[in-house]
Specification:
Blueprint: H1 18-32, E1 34-36, E2 40-42, E3 47-54, E4 59-66, E5 77-83, H2 85-101, E6 109-113, H3 121-126, H4 153-171, E7 174-183, H5 185-192, E8 202-206, H6 216-223, E9 230-236, H7 241-255, E10 260-266, H8 276-287
Parallel strand pairs: 5-6, 5-7, 7-8, 8-9, 9-10
Antiparallel strand pairs: 1-2, 3-4, 4-6
Length: 294
């Protein structure tokens, strides 16, 4: 039986958990003052907002750029792109800045990609269709997913690849090593990119919405002749069962591709949002550590 009422934000638009906020405050306090070499004081990295008048999205879009400690135009740097920047950018920026300055992670340029409006525009950006399946496996009708809140992923993909990445590579000293971090819908988007031409050599996919459109990400990848060497760090949790099963179908398909290096972590006791911080921290220690060419 189909559900016919319009959905309220559920697992896709959660508020950041209190625990994550506390950890973020802890990391931020560590970053306020620390010393390197001759005990010089180092301040938190500055974030710069840039704007692009996108021909693909037919509107102006902002992105946020944070540079690593001692950024120098004579050195080329990896770039880490962060979806859902309204929620995730500051956390990722500060941890990368701290651990990059201390040679734990690659010194990297961090780019936050906000989605203008999180209730509907986010879904338009990050999905490629209008699902008739909900995260628990129930059927839904067009009052749930329609052009007002979903299905604009190809436009956003073209903006990301042709406009945003091009702008970053023109404006900053980058080395072509590019990471994309996506959670939930963002993880679905990152997974869908495997069926499209994309420049990312590292994909972080946290509790992805593979249930969307009844696992279309898996179907797309099965039909793709994927040959690009790619590191993927994927995490997930068990609720609801339909979601878990779809993620595990995706995992099996990823394992069938010899050019994909896959690392996994399952969180049986964490929530959809609760696994984000641990996923990010453990993941980047696997995929984004030195050495790299300067």
């Amino acid at each position: 039986m189909e559900k016919t009422m319009k959905p309220k934000p559920l697992k896709e638009n959660h508020v950041i958990l209190t625990a994550m906020k506390k950890v973020f405050v802890l990391f931020s306090s560590v970053l306020l003052t620390f010393t390197l070499h001759a005990q010089d004081e180092i301040c938190l990295t500055r974030t710069t907002e840039h704007k692009i008048q996108s021909k693909h999205l037919e509107e102006e879009r902002a992105h946020w750029v944070s540079l690593p400690y001692n950024y120098n135009d004579s050195i080329s740097y990896p770039v880490v792109y962060v979806l859902d920047a309204e929620w995730r950018f500051e956390l990722i920026r500060d941890i990368f800045f701290d651990l990059g300055a201390n040679s734990v992670l690659q010194k990297s340029i961090i780019v936050g990609i906000p989605h203008v409006e999180m209730e509907n525009k986010r879904g338009q950006d990050l999905t490629f269709s209008q699902s008739r399946t909900e995260y628990d496996g129930d059927s839904v009708d067009s009052t749930w997913y329609n052009s007002s809140n979903s299905g604009g992923g190809m436009k956003f993909y073209n903006y990301l690849i042709e406009e945003l990445l091009t702008s970053m590579n023109n404006d900053y000293s980058t080395n072509g090593q590019e990471t994309l971090i996506g959670h939930s819908y963002g993880g679905y988007f990152a997974g869908y990119l495997l069926s499209l031409e994309n420049p990312f050599e590292v994909l972080h996919i946290y509790d992805p919405s593979i249930w969307y459109s009844d696992g279309e990400v898996v179907h797309q990848l099965k039909e793709a002749n994927y040959s690009k060497p790619t590191k993927i760090y994927l995490t997930y949790q068990p609720e609801p069962a339909f979601h878990k099963n779809k993620v595990e179908e995706f995992i099996e398909e990823l394992k069938s591709h010899s050019t994909i290096s896959l690392d996994l972590k399952f969180y049986p006791d964490y929530s959809h949002n609760g696994l984000f911080l641990d996923s990010f921290y453990n993941g980047v220690l696997i995929t984004n550590t030195p050495p790299y060419e300067e």
